Write the structure tokens for this entry.
Amino acid sequence: MPSQPTQIESRLALSSLAPETYQSEIRAMTTECDRMGGINLAQGVCDTPVPPLVEAAAMQAIREGQNIYTRCDGIARLREAIAVKQLREHGVRYQPENEVMVASGATAGFHAAAMALLNPGDEVLVFEPFYGYHVHTLKSLRVDPVLVALAEPDWELDVDAMRAAVTPRTRAILLNTPANPTGKVFTQAEIEAVAQLCLEHDLFLITDEIYEYFVYDGARHICPASLPGMRERTIVISGFSKTYSITGWRVGFATADARWMPAMGHFHDLTYVCAPAPFQVACAVGLEELPAGFYTQVAVDHQSKRGRLLAALKDAGMEASAPPGAYYIMAGADRLPGQTAAEKARHLLRATGVAAVAGSAFFRPGRGENLLRYCFAKKDSELDDACARLRKL
Ligand SMILES: Cc1ncc(COP(=O)(O)O)c(C=O)c1O
């Protein structure tokens, strides 16, 4: 006789994927910072001004009635402008019709790529420290992120560790360059080592290049799709959130071989339908009309912001080295009281009104407890205020 269940479990239960806690440490710090009227260097919101011609183009597009659904992979004009940009800057040719996807942010581009290419139980190598969305998105699709620690203090790639992490379940490597949270820009030699491993084991390479223009001190961003043999297996993801300071507009993109793109478009359609129509037009205008000098100026401006924050952190006794890219500084938190990075961040917020993110948010449990991440993509006046507050610590 079949045994009867002794206790009937309610079907009103969360899925096995739903996390036990929801508020990420970054959001928690933001809420606390707002409550006390502090300065938020925690979230990478990038509140520097939008390029005026991009802003004007968005308003014009709305007024002209470009407010309806677009193709799930974006308007032709923007797909063409992205293809032109990728060829000009990286020497990689993509067909605008079926190898470029406009996405609702790089976040949506990555989600669509993961849905289209990875199966539950697959493993993806992710370099640590990592960007939380990458790891959580993979987990949400029942894909296993396998962390490969970068070597401190400069977060160099440990090629042997990366090679040792490959198993028969490995399907892809995820690379974020320039990287959040470290500001690391992977060097030519490192990217070649990653590419070599992909070729040897027939792996995809998913690259998040959202900070592609944020490079300092002569560092050079290399798009891995430009390496021999890599175009067909590399999914390039980037976007406009950071470059044009439009994090709330939700426009990004992916470029990849025509074998993968239709499936990516399918999943982008299911979740987002399309990126916001008038903002797609505005981003196309940005790509078409902003001169090359705009992008170098983005780097010059942020290099100066980086210098200001770095000096203030040093004066406050927090050890940090200058990141070659992105717009974050990971600084030591030895001199702050607390057992964990979260406690140290809360102490800093209470003492100075400056919010930073606990380094532990970017590592496996037990690591990063002595680091805090500070974002310097802030208006100069706010950044200077934050610096003055830090110096009073
Ligand atoms: C590495 C990385 N990728 C993607 C994003 C988000 O990009 P988007 O606004 O285009 O979704 C961020 C934002 O902080 C990021 O740091």
Notes: The chain has two domains: 25-49+293-391, 53-289. The CA atoms of residues 29 and 236 lie 31 Å apart. The longest strand covers residues 170-176. The domain at 25-49+293-391 is CATH 3.90.1150.10 (Aspartate Aminotransferase, domain 1).
